[in-house]
DNA sequence: ACGGTCGATCGCGTTCATAT
DNA sequence: ATATGAACGCGATCGACCGT
């Protein structure tokens, strides 16, 4: 959805008015996604499933929003960042955030954030009535409601992350029937969150909740800086551990505690992030991009890319170029 | 020439015991 | 509490091959 269309619907108009106004201006199928002009400025009136907040450079501003009263807000970080995040003035997270990390803001809960690094966040709006309906369907009509979704801290889940990436693709309207598509993905996300909650009750360890950092921040900072600087070169666990000043075994364990994912997995995500931006240059060969992102063969690059993105590098590039996202 | 797939090899991540 | 090191299973990696 382009900025001109977005500007026609102020974020502050009442829900019902906004819905009908937007329907009158644009075809109904273009309503499910918004780009945020300020952090979480979207009023998720009927039809808006998700919105996205991108900040290319860090700024010193703290953003504060009262939570959406009619539902939950799921924030999925599409890129790595560094932030201080609070719910009702209580610190939820302070420090580095890996791509794929997520957190849920409960209905009406006040959220405050200060980003210390560029960020790219997808906000998915989960209406309370939808959550209620799914709970009643799965646990019976007399199941206790309402519930707190997603716990109180940062968490990771591969399935939700993949669903969120699919939802991000709806942004430009490239997916046919994309409003139904977006609603179906949202429903799947809610179901998955509820399933995770059930799992957490039976076996707490199965839930991938990100815990507070136990690797000291200065060590983590040095390791992440090393990744950023040497991304195009071979980086081993030993290199990262050495940059942080600990042994590789200790580093692997502590890094996982701090970031919620293994060092190698983090490295691959960073490489694929960079590869995606390079792929938008249609003239650049796949092998060239693979080498520029630290892969030593196109075979390895293709395999990792397909595993993480769900498409081959050329397939993904073709999709993006079709949508006019090429850069020169 | 470029890009995708497959199989063998190797290194990573995890666990556990131990030291400081 | 924090850090190190050994052992081991398995997934990541890379070279070879094939298709376009």
From TrEMBL:
Domain spans labelled HTH araC/xylS-type: 221-319
Q: What is this protein's record name?
A: AraC family transcriptional regulator
Which keywords fit this entry according to its UniProt record? Answer: DNA-binding, Transcription, Transcription regulation
- Work out whether the entry's keyword set contains Transcription regulation: yes
Please give the Gene Ontology molecular function terms for this protein: DNA-binding transcription factor activity; sequence-specific DNA binding
- Organism, as annotated: Paraburkholderia pallida
Q: Which SUPFAM superfamilies match?
A: Homeodomain-like
Highest taxon, organism lineage = Bacteria
Enumerate the Gene3D superfamilies for this protein: Homeodomain-like
Q: Which InterPro entries match?
A: AraC_XylS_family_regulators, Homeodomain-like_sf, HTH_AraC, HTH_AraC-typ_CS
């Amino acid at each position: 959805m382009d900025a001109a269309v977005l500007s026609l619907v102020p974020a502050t108009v009442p829900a019902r008015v906004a819905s009908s106004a937007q329907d009158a201006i644009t075809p109904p199928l273009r309503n499910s996604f918004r780009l945020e002009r300020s952090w979480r400025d979207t009023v998720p009136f009927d039809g808006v499933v998700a919105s996205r907040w991108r900040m290319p450079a860090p700024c010193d501003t703290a953003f504060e929003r009262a939570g959406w009263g009619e539902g939950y807000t799921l924030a999925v970080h599409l890129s790595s960042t560094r932030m201080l995040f609070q719910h009702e003035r209580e610190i939820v997270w302070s420090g580095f955030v890996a791509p794929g990390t997520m957190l849920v803001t409960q209905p009406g809960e006040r959220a405050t954030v200060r980003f210390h690094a560029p960020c790219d966040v997808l906000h998915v709006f989960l209406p309370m009535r939808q959550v209620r309906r799914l709970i009643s369907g799965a646990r019976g009509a007399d199941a206790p409601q309402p519930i707190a979704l997603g716990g109180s801290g940062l968490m990771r889940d591969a399935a939700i992350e993949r669903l969120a990436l699919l939802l991000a693709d709806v942004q430009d309207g490239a997916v046919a029937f994309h409003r139904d598509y977006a609603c179906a993905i949202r429903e799947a996300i809610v179901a998955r969150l509820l399933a995770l909650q059930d799992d957490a009750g039976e076996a707490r360890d199965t839930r991938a909740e990100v815990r507070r950092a136990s690797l000291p921040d200065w060590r983590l900072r040095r390791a992440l800086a090393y990744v950023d600087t040497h991304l195009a070169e071979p980086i081993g666990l030993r290199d990262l551990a050495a940059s942080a000043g600990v042994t590789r075994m200790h580093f692997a364990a502590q890094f996982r505690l701090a970031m919620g994912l293994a060092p190698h997995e983090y490295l691959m995500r960073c490489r694929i992030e960079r590869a995606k931006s390079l792929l938008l240059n249609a003239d650049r060969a796949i092998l060239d991009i693979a080498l520029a992102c630290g892969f030593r063969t196109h075979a390895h690059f293709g395999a990792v890319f397909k595993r993480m993105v769900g498409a081959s590098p050329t397939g993904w590039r073709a999709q993006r170029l079709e949508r006019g996202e090429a850069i020169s």
